[in-house]
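Case 261 in the screening queue. Each case pairs one protein sequence with one candidate compound; here the compound is zinc ion. For every case the pipeline is the same: read the inputs, emit a complex structure as tokens, and attach any notable structural observations.

Predict complex for case 261.
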Amino acid sequence: MAEGSSVSGGTGRIAVTASDDVMKVDLVRDRLSRAQRIVVLTGAGISAESGVPTFRGEGGLWRQHRALDLATPQAFARDPRLVWEFYNWRREVLGPLEPNPGHNALVKLEQRVPQFTLITQNIDGLHARAGSRNILELHGNIWHVRCLGCGKVAEDHSVLPPMPRCPGCGALLRPHVVWFGESLDPSILSTAFEAVQHAEIVMVIGTSGTVEPAASMGMVAKRKGACLVEINLEPTPFTTLYDTSILGKSGEILPMICESW
Ligand code: BJW
Ligand code: ZN
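Case 261 output:
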């Protein structure tokens, strides 16, 4: 959170004060404690404090690698070995990482709320590792593989051979994740939209809001009358459209919001 007293800079913008943030945290905690139906939408930022690289910020994956070369069906058709090298490298990076206090705070929140849906764009599996239950993984899971021949999906936590094959039919396996230009699982997507349309509060955490259809979910909820809360290190295209925006690390803010009712 921003520290110190408020400062009016030469730009005319007023910095958010620590006391403003404390008031926002109190306000959000109060709203959550009275809500029956809560949706949380997370992005790469919630896992950043676990050591998972984000996509677009400084040091982000798409700053170092071209998404079109690695995260499209065309890229996989052209060079499956290269794409598997990328995902195997990410498996190696993710393997030893642990959920952080942000993930853990959402577990506590779920335990207190009658209807709680956690929609995540993340493929790292850290929400489930932390103990969250009602999770919708919009973009799949890096620890799952899918057979291009028989379509079978299997869980596998190893670092795979360069061109892994299906033990059942021998066809090439692919990561069970959603690449650009691919449709999301229709049943996961409709359950997610159903949840946001009925939510009283939607918290949007650690996502740049650049990738559809996840990016539109907050506004869908807002049009239905939900209260929208954003937690992010920096402003996003949606910050001014939502009801409350708290700038800071989700691993610090979420425990304050969720762990002291
Ligand atoms: C912190 C923090 C801390 C840091 N605390 N905060 C409509 C209009 C225009 C285009 C489209 C459209 N509909 C569909 C498209 C095409 C495309 C799309 O959206 N393109 C845009 C880029 C324009 N979408 C698709 O193709 C989707 N499919 C689809 O819609 O099918 C139908 C269709 C297809 C084609 C045309 C039209 C319709 C599929 C999208 C799949 C995205 N896949 C990826 C890769 C997954 C596998 C993998 O990981 O390898 O998903 S891309 C990547 O981006 C990944 C993420 O889930 C996703 C979102 O990223 P996220 O989570 O927001 O991360 P960052 O890095 O961007 O942001 C991190 C944030 O955290 C920052 O804001 C930081 O400030 C913050 N932060 N530390 C709090 N400690
Ligand atoms: Zn198969």
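Case 261 observations:
- Confidence is low (pLDDT under 50) at residues 2-15.
- The longest strand covers residues 140-147.
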